[in-house]
């Protein structure tokens, strides 16, 4: 899930026709309106959706005292908090639940 997914939903709700190839928009019938909708997408909203999915399918143990809140885009390799997350994942101390083939 990313900003394209959110924009795709907004295009559908506004009746704007489009085609996508993989994760990229190939054609958009009303580019001006699509840009207006895109400009209204807040990164914080995307993070909120992603965080709720992460909490549900890949919960972090409370003992690590880590949160899903982000102060920046992506991981910061120099952050002690992010280092804990990488070590946690590398040790295999996570549990993905609720996912099925």
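Q: What amino acid sequence fits the structure above?
A:
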């Amino acid at each position: 899930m990313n900003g394209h997914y959110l924009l795709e939903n907004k295009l559908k709700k506004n009746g704007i026709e489009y085609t996508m190839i993989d994760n990229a928009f190939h054609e958009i019938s009303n580019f001006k309106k699509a840009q207006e909708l895109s400009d209204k997408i807040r990164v914080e909203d995307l993070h909120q959706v992603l965080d709720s999915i992460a909490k549900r399918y890949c919960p972090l143990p409370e003992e690590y005292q880590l949160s899903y809140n982000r102060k920046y885009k992506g991981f910061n390799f120099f952050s002690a908090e992010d280092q804990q997350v990488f070590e946690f994942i590398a040790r295999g101390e996570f549990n993905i639940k609720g996912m099925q083939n």
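Q: And what stands out in the fold?
A: Residues 60-90 form one domain.
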